[in-house]
Structures are given as structure tokens and as C-alpha cells.
Amino acid sequence: MLNLVLFGPPGAGKGTQAILLAKTFNLVHLSTGDLLRHEIAAKTELGRIAGELIDKGELVSDEIVISMIESRLKKPRCTIGFIFDGFPRTVAQAKALDKLLTKHHSKVSVMLCLAVDKGELVNRLLKRGLTSGRCDDLEAATIEHRIDVYNEKTLPIINYYESQGKYFPIPGVGTIEEITENLTSVVKTIYDKPIISHSHK
Predict the structure, then answer these.
(1) Can you tell me the distance from the alpha carbon of 201 to that of 184, in angstroms, rounded to the nearest whole number?
(2) What whole-number distance in Å separates Cα of residue 44 and Cα of residue 67?
(3) For residue 176, what are the β-bridge partners?
(4) How many alpha carbons fall within 13 Å on the CB side of residue 190?
(5) pTM to 2 decimals?
(6) C-alpha span between 128 and 96 (Å, rounded)
(7) Each residue's pLDDT tens digit, 90-122
């Protein structure tokens, strides 16, 4: 199987690149935010618990998120693996994901990290805020705080995957096509099996 972890700070373009990589390599795109919304909309037991926590303004526990991911892993599919978009966010989550994948006779193949400097990220998110309506994209100070929190929590995760030889930083600047090409090139170097391509080109 081919399992990618796509990481990067807010505004790095993870969502866009995850969708393109999923199409190119025939992967299931797993975004924890999408999973939460799906489980809540489907009124599953996990969704009910998560919804109650969110309504109280509390964070959904790692156990619930991992359970949602496992539920998705068990579903029938015709893909060769998964791309995890913005997950894991902590070393504890990374270890939990490794344990879960091992249980399903699989593992993380590579961790791709989009690298973008802080000034560029702030500019991107301020522009996004003009059209997205997201309140956390409207104030530079709020955005900078989110980036600082990301940087504080990310370094241990980078070290975790780097110690396994799976960490690959990719410049997150340039055209969407250029960034996709750089990401794709890295994946092809570490995945030596024939790929059923569903390219967006």
C-alpha cells in the first residue's frame, strides 16, 4: 500500500495538493475535518459523541479521530492507499496512526511537508479570508498565532518521521502545478510499484 501523510502550516495548500495527489496515485483522501463532518451528518455513534464535544467547544479526542480513521480503513475500496491531510498533528497521534496501520498490515510510506515562510502564509490566509468567510482568516494577529502554534507542535512530529527516514520537506511556493510535480516526484522515488494513474492533467 501507499500511505502518504501531507503536512504543512495553515495556508500551505494542503487541501488542494491532497486532492491532486489522491487523483494522481489513486488514493483515498482522508481529511479529519471531512471525516468528522461525515460521521456527524450520518448520525453514527462516533458522530454523536464528536458532535456533543464540538457543541461544547471541546476538542475531539485522539481516540475518536483514530476510530473514525479505522472505520474508513475497513471500508471496501479500489485504491492503493490513503493520503492523510493534516493528520497526525502530534507525536501521540503519529504513534497511534502507526499502531492502527500496523494492525491493518500497512504503514506510513512517507511524510511530505509543505514549507512556506510565515509572511507568505499570512498574506495567503488574509486573501482567503476575504472570500472564505472564516473569521480565523481575517486578522493577521490571529493567523500569526495559529502559525506559531503549528510551528511549536510540528517540530516533534518532523523529528518522529525523520528518525524513520520518511520526512521530505517540499517547497510550498510556486504554481500549483510546480508544487504538485515536486510532491509527485518524491512519491515516485519511494514507491517502486506500478501506479494506476488517475492524473488530473
Answers:
(1) 13
(2) 12
(3) none
(4) 18
(5) 0.86
(6) 33
(7) 899 999 999 999 999 999 999 999 999 999 999
